[in-house]
Design brief:
Strand order of the largest sheet: 1-2
Radius of gyration: 19 Å
CATH topology: Farnesyl Diphosphate Synthase
CATH class: Mainly Alpha
Strand content: under 5%
CATH superfamily: Farnesyl Diphosphate Synthase
Helix content: over 70%
Distance between the termini: 13 Å
CATH architecture: Orthogonal Bundle
Number of domains: 1
Length: 309
């Protein structure tokens, strides 16, 4: 498993993350950030950065800086998301806005973004910096696009994929590509393609979890917010009652019936199949890379992300 293969590198990266949280001079910043970062999560994005760096021979110090920057970017987006989505829980505990207030969550998210860019600059690699900077801008665009699409049942599958490609897959791709660029590796694009497909698989699987729960995710968050995600789109493709979804989305009390309808038309299974197809795409993208234990770990990670088991 990837986390076991990279345990020493991840421990060093976690130490760097905590170090860069503590040296900001404002106690509220590490307090809020630690509340989120120490709540759990599999650290999949920094693990991807560490794996890409190790596979391509990037300098360890630079790879750790990029991995920590990726985690800070991700954490910043989570803080902002919880404010926008009015989420009261994150990973089975009170969200940062619930614990510290919206103002603190927004401002600490901004501080984490800034700290991430400081670490990216410290690598001395303009291509790596450019990749993560572009991903940060793409994430923001994806979140706005998702906000604009709330409750729109006429959203196409292509439009949905464009949204999740921006808000989720872009950072997965950048986490894989930036260390390869630091190493000036010819495999940067292959690793980016792997990361993108993995991110799509991860997000579609996450959308299924919103209806079923599990992995610390509270069921119904996306449904309550009126997000039209993979299960709903696939149900509508199967001629599911559009009128029901127009009435139900945003009404948490309708979640049990929504789940029953999704299961009845096979929409959850269909979404899982789409996630697995993206996982297979991710595995195929690694074909140009030489065989290694880390490559094998990345290959194994893809179906795991699709199933989120």
């Amino acid at each position: 498993m990837l986390s076991k293969s990279l345990a020493p590198e991840m421990a060093a990266t976690n130490a760097l993350i905590l170090e860069r949280l503590e040296d900001v001079g404002v106690p509220l910043i590490p307090q809020v950030a630690r509340h989120l970062i120490e709540a759990g999560g599999k650290r999949i994005r920094p693990l991807l950065a560490l794996a890409a760096g190790a596979i391509t021979g990037a300098p360890e110090s630079g790879t750790r800086l990029l991995a920590a920057a990726v985690e800070f970017i991700h954490s910043a987006t989570l803080l902002h998301d919880d404010v926008v989505d009015e989420s009261r829980q994150r990973r089975g505990r009170p969200s940062a806005p619930a614990a510290f207030g919206n103002k603190a969550a927004v401002l600490v998210g901004d501080a984490l973004f800034a700290r991430a860019f400081e670490m990216m600059v410290a690598t001395g690699s303009l291509p790596a910096l450019g990749t993560l900077a572009t991903a940060s801008a793409t994430i923001a665009r994806g979140e706005v696009a998702q906000l604009a699409a709330l409750g729109h049942l006429n959203t196409s599958w292509a439009a949905y994929v464009e949204i999740i490609d921006a808000k989720t897959a872009a950072l997965f791709a950048a986490a894989c590509k930036a260390p390869a660029l630091l190493a000036k590796s010819p495999h940067a694009d292959a690793l980016a393609a792997y990361g993108r497909a993995l991110g799509l698989a991860f997000q579609v699987a996450d959308d299924v979890l919103d209806y079923e729960g599990g992995l610390g995710k509270e069921p119904g968050d996306d449904f309550r917010e009126g997000k039209v995600t993979a299960p709903v789109l696939l149900a509508l493709e199967g001629r599911e009652d559009r009128g029901f979804w127009a009435r139900a989305l945003g009404n948490i009390g309708a979640l049990p019936e929504a789940l029953e309808r999704l299961e009845c038309v096979g929409a959850l299974d269909a979404a899982r199949a789409r996630a697995l197809a993206y996982a297979h795409e991710a595995q195929g993208a690694l074909a140009p890379l030489p065989t290694s234990p880390l490559k094998d770990a990345l290959l194994a990670l893809a179906p795991y992300a699709a199933g989120r088991g």
